[in-house]
Amino acid sequence: MIKHTVCFKLKDNSAENCEKAKEVLLSMEGKVPQIKSIEAGVDFLHSERSYDVILQVVVEDEQALADYQKDPYHCSVVKPHMHAVRETSVAVDCVIG
């Protein structure tokens, strides 16, 4: 299994914008077949090194991760929204289990 984690800093990190980003990320549940589990959250600490929103997705293997990256819903809904609202992002992909 692979865990795909992405942390986003938003251009406007108001509570409303962070919650909207979280909702858009979670909207992949049931629409992107490669996703085995999904979590998203909004940072509450707001420290200098904090990111605003996190996404964690578990997929079966590297092929499933590649397919997830090209999924039509992910590419037509989620990526455009997140690219429009993010200032920057970082990602980690690791084998779990």
3D architecture notes:
It contains three helices and four strands; from the N terminus they run βαββααβ. By secondary structure, the protein is α+β, with helices and mostly antiparallel strands. The radius of gyration is 13 Å and the shape is globular. Helix 1 packs antiparallel against helix 3. It has a four-stranded antiparallel sheet with strand order 2-3-1-4. The longest helix is centred in the C-terminal third of the chain and has 14 residues. 36% of the residues lie in helices and 33% in strands. It has a single domain, classed as 2-Layer Sandwich (Alpha-Beta Plaits).
Characteristics of this structure?
about 100 residues; alpha+beta
**Name of the level-1 CATH class:** Alpha Beta
Amount of beta strand: 25-35%
SSE-based structural type: alpha+beta
Q: What is the level-2 CATH architecture name? A: 2-Layer Sandwich
Strand order, main sheet: write it out.
Answer: 2-3-1-4
What value does the average pLDDT take? Answer: 98
**First-to-last CA distance:** 6 Å
Order of helices and strands: EHEEHHE
Low confidence ranges? none
